[in-house]
Amino acid sequence: MDESWLVVGLGNPGKEYARNRHNVGFLVADLLAGRIGAKFGRHRRAVAEVAEGRLGYGGPKVILAKPLTYMNLSGGPAAALAQFYKVPIGQVVAVHDELDIGYGLVKAKLGGGEGGHNGLRSMSKSLGGKEYARVRFGVGRPPGRQDPADYVLSDFSAAERKELEFLVDRAADVVEAIVTQGVEAAQNAYNGA
């Protein structure tokens, strides 16, 4: 199985953003790197940290990426890596926070709109299409009148942190299901739960 997959964890670089809702893609990428026994290093052709390995023994090759350009410009590094590794758009997976899904839910999706998510908008523009898979990590809507931008750039609440490790683990499982079985199988296994 020589087909490579590019898994792009969306987030913002820097310690001040590390535990933000917007950085859940980085948390999932870090967990997946641990699962495949890979370490992140700076890529020579893209403004991103990259880790490479195989899912399981003899499984598909996976390139994990954390763009270092800030969320709104994530597409540039994603497209550069897709080109460098010759990964078609249908084998790109974006892992991101999702306001339209309640906290505690993780869903797989293929293509579609960006829902106002600037990281996805940047990826669609740079990749030249929307036909890539997404792992949507529900963060829910901001309370009261809080600005959604402020909400996603704030840390998970104490109550949310109790479940965070489990949910990041679940999101990593969804990524693995997409890569090994396809988006539809991942949807059937995880979207209803």
UniProtKB/TrEMBL annotation:
Site (Stabilizes the basic form of H active site to accept a proton): 97
Single Gene Ontology MF annotation: hydrolase activity
Superkingdom assignment: Bacteria
Keyword Phosphoprotein found: no
Coiled coil: none
Discriminates between blocked and unblocked aminoacyl-tRNA (site feature) positions: 12
Keyword line: Cytoplasm, Hydrolase, RNA-binding, tRNA-binding
Subunit comment: Monomer.
Protein name: Peptidyl-tRNA hydrolase
Species name: Phytohabitans aurantiacus
